[in-house]
Amino acid sequence: EKVFKPWCQSRAAQLFRFAHRHFAAGEGRGGVIFQFARTSDAAEGRWPADESGWRYLPQRSIGSLGIKTNHVLSAVQRYSPQQQCVVIVLVKEAKFDRFYFLNAPKGPPNSRR
């Protein structure tokens, strides 16, 4: 968590756009999923650097990940897709799961609304 949370926050706008693109394309509510076999993979920062290595799963498929706790599933049910995205981290070795809500990026300072 000490490594992943800052990584997520530094890429919040990109993660939100990635998730929202999938939501808007008809995949519905879901989350950006990062899965690791070992804790050391996550701790050493072995994150996919670009979107081609990222994975979006719709809500109906998240149950197939084998998440034992309901907090992740309920996060996907309650977030606001227009304002937030859900990022889910799974580490198989530690039976660890976490989720983060990331807010939509603010528009450019000179943008018209």
Topology:
Blueprint: H1 4-10, H2 12-27, E1 30-36, H3 39-43, E2 55-58, H4 59-62, H5 70-78, E3 84-91, E4 96-103
Parallel strand pairs: 1-3
Antiparallel strand pairs: 1-2, 3-4
- What structural class do the secondary elements suggest? alpha+beta
> What is the N-to-C order of secondary-structure elements (H for helix, E for strand)?
HHEHEHHEE
Number of helices: 5
Overall outline: globular
Radius of gyration: 14 Å
How do the strands line up in the largest sheet?
A: 2-1-3-4
Portion of residues in helices?
Answer: 25-40%
Low-confidence stretches: 108-113
Largest sheet: 4 strands, mixed
* Euclidean distance between termini CA atoms: 36 Å
| Beta-strand segment tally | 4
Strand content: 15-25%
The average pLDDT score comes to 83
Task: Give an overview in words.
36% of the residues lie in helices and 24% in strands. The protein is built from 5 helices and 4 strands. It has helices at 4-10, 12-27, 39-43, 59-62, 70-78, and strands at residues 30-36, 55-58, 84-91, 96-103. By secondary structure, it is of the alpha+beta class.
